[in-house]
Amino acid sequence: MSAIGWAVSDTVSLTRRETMHWLRQPFAVIVGLLFPVLFFLMFGYLLGGGMTVPGGGGYRDALIPGMFAMTMMFGVEATMTAMGADAAKGVTDRFRSMPMSAVAVVAGRCCADLIQSALGLLVLVACAAVSGWRWQDGLAGALAAFGLLLWLRFAMLWIGVFLGLMIKGPQGTATVQILVYPLAFLSNVFAAPESMPAWLGALAEWNPLSATAAAARDLFGGPGFGGDSFAASHPLLLALLWPLVLTAVFLPLSVRKYRGLSR
């Protein structure tokens, strides 16, 4: 079998290994799937009553695509924690001692987490549908929006893998988890960047999360926060480019870091 064939075979095996762990930890899986639903209910119903959307439209219709995007970003924590746990328990070292592809170890984790993220997105879409949300521009636009959301998640996976291999101990993991929240909230998910101070609004507009959220709103045909800047006017372009850049940076870094781990 060729090197590529071995890498694909090893990736499938390790993906199966990770998914089998879900059967042994059903509570953790259920909590992970329902956590975004809790955020949606909290911001959509408890805090969203007093929010308005520039240009008209319901706030909840603008919030839901942003919540989809934020769920994809929050997944970086689970990937980082799982990689760190495997490294701490010696599982990663055992894999490295076996004749298997170095890419397959990190790719298997990414594939399994991507499957779980797709399931979480499906649960959140079902919850939004129950609340009355519908996409307005047809199935093709909706599928494109879901593709962009998973594309962002794919990039976040490689960041999580790299951080999981870099950071040692639970304290470092907790620090990164705390930092994820400001990055997620410094976006256009909950409020229009134009309502923020100029410097803060600029940071929010150029946030990769904001690009995916704005592009998803456009593709779903729902209301958005708009804006006159380049980032606000070209969300689809940035939603494609940001994950590509992040993947191009962190995928090779993750593989290199894995290969450089001490035996």
UniProtKB/TrEMBL annotation:
Chain ranges passing through the membrane: 26-47, 67-88, 100-133, 139-166, 178-200, 236-255
Gene Ontology biological process terms in this record: response to antibiotic
Q: Entry's InterPro entries?
A: ABC2_TM, ABC2_TM_bact-type, ABC_2_transport, Nod_factor_ABC_transporter
| Top-level taxon | Bacteria
Q: Name one GO cellular component term.
A: ATP-binding cassette (ABC) transporter complex
Domain (ABC transmembrane type-2) ranges? 27-261
Q: What topology does it adopt in the membrane?
A: Multi-pass membrane protein
Record's subcellular location: Cell membrane; Membrane
Keyword flag Membrane: yes
Q: Which GO terms describe its molecular function?
A: ABC-type transporter activity
The name this protein carries in UniProt is Transport permease protein
User: What is the protein's species of origin?
Assistant: Actinorhabdospora filicis
